[in-house]
Design a protein that fits this description.
Blueprint: H1 2-9, H2 43-50, H3 87-99, H4 106-118, H5 126-129, E1 149-157, H6 163-180, E2 205-210, H7 212-217, E3 248-254, H8 257-271, E4 275-284, H9 317-321, E5 336-345, H10 347-350, H11 355-362, H12 399-403, E6 414-415, E7 418-424, E8 430-440, H13 447-455, E9 464-474, H14 486-490
The protein binds ligand L6N33NVT and fe (ii) ion.
Fe (ii) ion (FE2) binds next to helix 12.
């Protein structure tokens, strides 16, 4: 089904992904190179403009299928050419059902009924139909441009679940992730509430990881990677242990909020009896198409954030981000280690400062992200350049100086964060900030040395509070017929 969808619309750059040996979900970014991360969020929309999104497949399905009436219809809809069931086709059959007098209820129902009669079945937009491959050298959701909606959720195995139960869970989860990333309902569709029934996969990615505690609980201590050693304590940490760590981790991203929640709900349901949610965080990024052209996203402090991420076209990119094929342990080949930090921003404090002060704090202009040493957003910052008064244009404590690989023995990481806002605190301040996600081949050559420096005090840290922390081993992408982590659990 989904292949057909992409074929008809053209599979140009964006979240249709390259699916090449380079790994799954490598969207490329028109006009700005294949830069992963927040900056690429608009690639899909930019692609849509040039790919004739109007030629929708399945446009003639209305009235031909079995109307999957009601909530569980996702599992009883029209068969697609690949032998599965497609929400896209169900959109057509639902229209037919409406004409046949299905109770839709209320004004919305009346509107839907009229719309179903008047309009030909509308094709999904390119945003809805964007599909990221599940299989590949790397799991999807690392190189994939960061989506507009994200959920991060950690699970702990229940006391009597061991290696066998964990393997069965990863097999179930992988199958469901694979299905949903193609716009199909999850495994066990009879229990599915059809939350995203009318939508395509909308760039859905599901990424799985293993925490340090998983290995003791499953008798796999001999396979624990050295890279999962606990992160050091940082002096400014104020970590909530209940929202930190975990045996298992899932990152979900999609450009539609219902698609993202649907995946979260399905995966949580499938964990029942084997693992319990430990914590969950919800985040967001700019929506594809919100800007005039693909632009690097902004964080909640208003800064352009993601400019100087390592790029896949750089020669040392793969070795910085991914465990090599010959790396140890062997089950982590093609994998990566992700550090999560929930970082609250002191926005009320931040807002009191002038734009000039805010720019000095980072070392870049707020308007266009250009470094204070001159040039445009993508000009390399000149850390040696001085102003007329002899002082460095990028201050000694500016965030980009303190975090730059040049200041940290080459340490680098791929940042792919989500913003979050969870209401207001007792003092009235927003509980908002960054779900900071850093991907690297080894945290000791990525996050750790840089955070040690930040902990000693850069200008930005005054406005930040690290409130939760976790580190997970994220294995390479599965091959066809495999589940994520099979090399660990069965190797
Ligand atoms: C330990 C690593 C890092 C943490 C924690 C971190 C938090 C954090 N950063 C911003 C905003 C920006 N960061 C920028 C650049 C940047 N940040 C890190 C690392 C951490 N940031 C690195 C390695 C870099 C790149 C440095 C370089 O090579 O130039 C920028 C500038 C634009 C960009 O390149 O992305 C901003 C803005 C926030 C708000 C934050 C915590 C909430
Ligand atoms: Fe940063």
């Amino acid at each position: 089904m989904s292949t057909q969808r992409n074929d008809k619309r053209g599979s140009g750059p964006g979240r249709t992904g390259t699916g090449s040996g380079a790994g799954s979900g490598t969207g490329s970014r028109p006009g700005a190179g294949a830069v992963p991360g927040p900056s690429t969020g608009e690639a899909t929309e930019a692609t849509a403009k040039g790919t004739g999104a109007g030629t929708g497949p399945g446009a003639g399905t209305a009235g031909t299928g079995t109307a999957g009436a009601g909530g569980s219809g996702a599992s009883s809809g029209a068969a697609d050419p690949a032998g599965g069931f497609s929400r896209r086709r169900l959109l057509g059959t639902a229209s037919a059902a409406g004409v046949a007098g299905l109770a839709l209820g209320g004004a919305g129902g009346a509107y839907a009924h009229a719309a179903a009669q008047d309009a030909p079945p509308a094709p999904l937009t390119s945003l809805g139909s964007a599909e990221v491959p599940f299989h590949g050298a790397h799991q999807a959701g690392i190189l994939t441009p960061a989506q507009a909606h994200g959920h991060l959720v950690a699970f702990d195995l229940v006391p009597d679940a061991g290696r066998r139960q964990a393997a069965a869970l990863l097999r179930r989860w992988s199958e469901t992730a694979h299905r949903m990333m193609r716009g199909k309902p999850p495994v066990g569709g009879e229990h599915d509430t059809g939350i995203a029934l009318d939508a395509g996969p909308a760039g859905l990615t599901v990424t799985f990881g293993f925490g340090r505690t998983f290995f003791a609980r499953t008798g796999l201590k001999d396979r624990l990677p050295a890279q999962l050693a606990p992160l050091p304590d940082f002096s400014a940490d104020a970590l909530d242990k209940k929202r930190s760590d975990g045996d298992l981790w899932i990152q979900i991203g999609a450009d539609d909020a219902l698609v993202a929640f649907h995946a979260l709900r399905a995966l949580q349901r499938e964990a029942a009896g084997t693992a319990r949610p430990r914590w969950q965080m919800t985040g967001f990024n700019r929506s594809p198409g919100a800007t005039d052209r693909p632009r690097t996203t902004r964080n909640l402090m208003g800064q352009i954030d993601g400019t100087n991420n390592p790029r896949p076209d750089e020669k040392d990119f793969a070795e910085r981000v991914f465990v090599p094929a010959s790396g140890q342990p062997s089950w982590m080949a093609g994998g990566s280690y992700v550090v999560l930090r929930r970082i609250r921003m002191l926005l009320d404090e931040w807002d009191k400062h002038s734009v000039g002060d805010q720019e000095k704090t980072i070392g870049r202009r707020k308007s266009d992200g250009s470094p204070l040493s001159g040039g445009g957003e993508h000009t390399e910052p000149d850390l040696d350049k001085r102003g007329k008064d002899g002082s460095p244009l990028i201050a000694a404590d500016a965030h980009i100086r303190v975090t730059s690989p040049d200041s940290n023995g080459g340490a680098a990481m791929l940042r792919r964060p989500f913003s979050y806002h969870d209401g207001f605190r007792d003092d009235g301040a927003p509980d908002a900030g960054l779900l900071f996600l850093a991907w690297q081949a080894d945290p000791l050559r990525g996050f750790v040395p840089v955070q040690r420096k930040l902990d000693r005090g850069d200008a930005l840290s005054r406005f930040l509070r690290h409130e939760a922390s976790a580190l997970f081993a994220v294995p390479g992408g599965p091959r066809e017929g495999e589940y994520v982590g099979q090399g660990l659990l069965e190797g």
